Amino acid sequence: MAMDELTTLTACQAQALLRDGRISALELTDACLARIAAEEPHVQAWAFLDPELARAQARRCDELRRLGRAHGPLHGIPVGVKDIIDTRDLPTEHGTVLHAGRRPHRDAAVVERLRAAGAVVLGKTVTTELAVYHPGKTRNPHDAERSPGGSSSGSAAAVAAGMVPLAIGTQTNGSGIRPASYCGVFGFKPSHGLISRFGVLTQSPPLDHVGVFARTIEDLALLAEALAGYDARDRDTRLETPPRLSEVAGQEWPLPPDLALVRSPVWDQAEDDLRAGFGELAEALGPRLTEVELPAAFNTAHDLHGLIMAVDLARSFAAEYERGREQLSERLRGIIEDGLAARAIDYARALDLVPKLRAALDPLFERHDVIVTPAATGQAPRGLGATGSPAFCTIWTLLGLPAVTLPLLTGADGMPIGVQLVGSFGEDARLLRTARWLVSRLAAD
Questions:
Q1: From CA 155, how far away is CA 212, in angstroms rounded?
Q2: CATH of the domain spanning 1-445
Q3: 82, 147, 264, 424: which is the annotated catalytic residue?
Q4: pLDDT tens track for 374-409
């Protein structure tokens, strides 16, 4: 296959071709590196890339396959890793000059699992400053004058630009779902605790998630399943059988699912393109989509999230603030200072309300399979000084619910707009199955 054809392969397609010996891991890696060489000057998705190290990993994968020792579902497939996730053989600098030159001595849990699954760790993708709001250098692949979103900007942009079939990011507010929406790719934030965060920059333990980016739902399931599972080093992971994401996501629904349209308390932030797109979506789905209003208690959810995040950032970034506050962006300093000024009792009460809000959704999920809601306020915003609003992700991150964004809508400027589906806690596989049903249904229509 020609190099440009290789970069259009989904991960599942590449997996099959590698298994059958029709392509090699080195050919696939070389194709990704060639694509990066062509597109990186415009997109700037990579914080660190060592082409020879990537090729060495690929050659090792090919040698193991020749010896009959290929291992894992990702054997030979290149993956991009966000630059707040520790890698023992590549720098991890967290998007800040305060951590420039940082070289971890061990891999994060997700990188351990990548290697165990046979993946080629292609390089480190750009993050915003300490994975908060101040933008990195990455530009939107569809329009270099627009934001790619954040904080997992490089991961989403790299997949969208065809530089790599799969990438890993994180989300503490809207850091995965929003850039996936802006860049027009599939993004998945699993249930809180499904994927270990050991070795990942800590922002807020109650809110931090590891997520994935891909070009198809099947690829999301493939990567997330390889990363999921219990890890004693992350107290929020659960000692239970990991979900069979790929198997369940590939199944057909026995009956068409029932979907709940939730505009959420921040619908006033929805732009005209988004409102029009959701109107078309409701018309296309007809009785399968029922509008549901959240209980009044959810009107405070954004404030609860803001309080928890500010306090935890003040704790997590105490050293950076004390020793190098002048090197931090003004916005991050302000959030940290808000956290320092917060009362302990208010923080504790906010944490206590989270399980109550999650329980308040039980009646909704008894009647509906998933929530349908925006992934972002609309198209990627023009300008590179900010990363857009995470408002439509905040509630679902606060509650730790699984969420996936699908590139189903297009704005007036031709830019992608994502549709977010949210599932009940722990129902990650069913969420992905419903997402695949929705994509297939709309494609058929």
A1: 9
A2: 3.90.1300.10
A3: 82
A4: 999 999 999 999 999 999 999 999 999 999 999 999
